[in-house]
Structures are given as C-alpha cells and as structure tokens.
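Predict the 3D structure for this chain.
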Amino acid sequence: MPEWLVLTLAMLAACAVVVVITLVRHRRAPEDEDPSETPDVIEYMTMWIGVVYAIVLGLAIAGVWEARSVAQDHVQAEAQALHEISERVRVYPADVRDRIRADVNAYVGHVVTREWKEMADGGDVSGRGDELLQQVRVDVTDYRPASDFQAQAYQPLLDQLAAADQARNARAESTGATMPGVVWFGLLAGAVITIGMVFALQIRRTTRELVLAGLFSALIAFLLFLIWDFDAPYSRGVTASAEPFLRLFPGIAS
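Done. Predicted structure below.
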C-alpha cells in the first residue's frame, strides 16, 4: 500500500473517530448538562494548533539549516584534503610533484567554475569532475616511493585522497532538496489550518485586528520561504559556498 494512501487513511480515521465520539457523547449527555461551564473549544483548539504548528516550523527550519551546514562541512573537508595532497607531495621529485599539483589545481578549477554552476542550477556533480579526481588518484597511487622519507608520505597521501573522494560523494548526495514531499504537505496544510483559525474566531474589520492578521500570515509565509530557501544547500539564496576552495587555492579563479 502506498505511503500517501496510508497517510490519507490515517488522517481520515482520526477525524472519523473524533466526530463519532463527539456525536455519541452528545446523544448520551444528560438533559441538564450545561456546556457553558466548560472552556470554549474553539479557543482551546486554536491555541494548540498554533503551538503544534510552531514546533513543526521550528523543527523544519532547524533541519534544513543543519543540512546546509553539513553541506558546507563537506566542501571544507574536500578542499582541505586536496590542499593536504598538494602540500605533502613536496617530498616527491619535482616532475611528480608538479604533475600532481597541476592535476589537483585542474580539478579544483573545474569544481569552482563549471561544476559549482551546474550544482547551483539544481544539477549534480559532473562526470568531468570524477575524471579529474581519478587522474589525481592515478598520479598518487602509481608513484613508487624512492626513499623511506617518500614512503612515509605515501600512506597519508592515500588517506587524504580517500577523504577528498568521500567528501565529494557526500557533496553529490546533498545537492538536492532535503525536505520530503510529505513534510511540505504538512507544512502547507498546517499553514492553511492555522491561518484559517483566524476566521473561525470571527475576526472583525478593526484596523488592529486586520494588521495583526496580516502580519501573522506574512510571518508564516516568510518562515515557509525560509525553509524552501535553505532546502537546497547549493542552489538557492543562502547556500553553501566554494569559499574553502578559493581560500586554500588562491590561484584558482572562480
């Protein structure tokens, strides 16, 4: 059974249970029962709808912000690992050192110029980037250390190369939206219900109430926009940046 169908049935079942219990209790209530002695259910429901929806909005904002921060951490880890490779190959012969550094610079240049723009347009990491990183791997792994000093640097270079590859894969996995569709359904439905409760309380046309209702609706719209903006870490307003690459490789032009 599809998840959306399970969700729909669960919501309908919950509504049906509440309605049935309310009708049964109303029919079995004693004739002398005075409903005015209990609090107004509209005010009670409005309060809890606002509280629950505020919690959901807060969790959603925290989730997308954390995803954006994690995406930036992937960029930092990848740039740092590549920088370590460029620095550690100084113990290698000049021709090997220059070739590895040139290939690292070629990969970084491709990432900050072409690949980053593709990611910003909602795409994925490029196959060309995979090829350039593979070339760096070939350069590092195919060289046979000629001395004990070079041999001591060989394994750390492999570790940094693995770290760069892992960070790249993590960056590729975080290019898309992080919020599932069912969460967006809950956020939008909750916004409609929360704002709709304003009308359930019989809002009047006084200037103060109209201004407050407008500001309340604008605030919810702003928070939903904020969630949407953070939802794609590399392709919208407040995004993870390529600044770590540019800082560690200042000769690369963005």
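DSSP finds eight helices and no strands in the chain.
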